[in-house]
Design goal:
single chain; three-stranded mixed sheet; binds zinc ion; two-stranded antiparallel sheet; 275 residues
């Protein structure tokens, strides 16, 4: 669920901008300190434009109970996320893919294909919490900051190759490309898994705060893992930590989440099967 493809020109422009503003911020719930090279307003703008271009390529389900549940859960979760400055929007996309995402600024997409895995409102609340967590923890901005640092390093390397070696241009391009790939796999992917664990922690706390039973978080991942056994790996799982690691993270946060849930518990059933 990586929302952005960056073209080099945009990258260079962002790099120049980012040299002006380097902010140290704190991730909600986990309290981890992070450095963001990119101003949040710019990320929200990127999120907004990415949202409308993604939605324009899909059919949306605007009516019916499924969409009503999505709107209800989205509003409850975004309320506890305490970012009233975000432009929260929730779209149900008609697509069999098992996926959901939230772009910077609170632009959320759920695919109809994920609904059977969520099973009920509480299941949706966990995945909603996880996605909203990616946005409030500014993971997109952090990943993009990292891409830009990589890009900066690559430009520097190319300059060295250009000046002091007798390699042919094609060879240089090959070297830079191979290093780029290594960087992608070696640096960015593990970092992204850390983001996924962090989004799980935030998700379980947000769902509990919004009044949904947090123990349902693990049940969602169990159902997701069952789907993984089939021939098609859900898109949702492709960048995510393994199942056992995931459950360990949730277990760690569950006692605190239970306390929040007891304080905010909804007076209606949220685990009745819907899908
Ligand atoms: Zn995620």
């Amino acid at each position: 669920m990586s929302p952005f493809r960056l073209n080099p020109r945009t990258g260079a422009l962002l790099l120049a901008l980012s040299a002006l503003v380097i902010a140290c911020t704190k991730v909600p719930i986990t309290g981890r300190k992070q450095y963001n090279l990119i101003p949040e307003k710019l990320m929200i703008g990127l999120g907004k434009s990415q949202y409308s271009s993604t939605l324009s390529k899909h059919k949306l389900q605007r009516k019916g109970e499924d969409n009503q549940v999505l709107q209800r859960v989205g509003k409850r979760i975004s309320k506890v996320a305490k970012r009233s400055d975000y432009d929260w929007q929730y779209s149900l996309i008609k697509d069999d893919t098992i996926n959901a995402w939230c772009l910077p600024g609170g632009y959320i997409g759920f695919y109809t294909g994920i609904l059977p895995t969520l099973k009920h409102e509480a299941g949706m609340a966990f995945v909603m919490g996880h996605e909203v967590g990616h946005a409030t923890a500014r993971h997109g901005s952090e990943r993009l900051s990292q891409h830009l640092s990589v890009l900066g390093g690559m430009v520097g390397l190319y300059a060295i190759l250009e000046g002091k070696t007798k390699l042919k241009t094609e060879q240089k391009v090959l070297i830079v490309g191979a290093l780029g790939l290594a960087t992608e796999v070696g640096v960015i992917l593990p970092f992204s898994r850390m983001h996924e664990s962090e989004a799980d922690a935030i998700g379980v706390m947000y769902m509990a705060e919004a009044g949904y039973p947090p123990k349902e978080a693990k049940a969602v991942w169990d159902r997701m893992a069952q789907n993984t056994g089939k021939s098609v790996i859900p898109v949702f799982l492709s960048t995510h930590p393994n199942h056992e690691q995931r459950k360990k993270t949730i277990d760690k946060w569950l006692p605190q989440a239970q306390k929040r849930y007891q304080r905010n518990k909804l007076d209606r059933e949220t685990t009745n099967g819907l899908w």
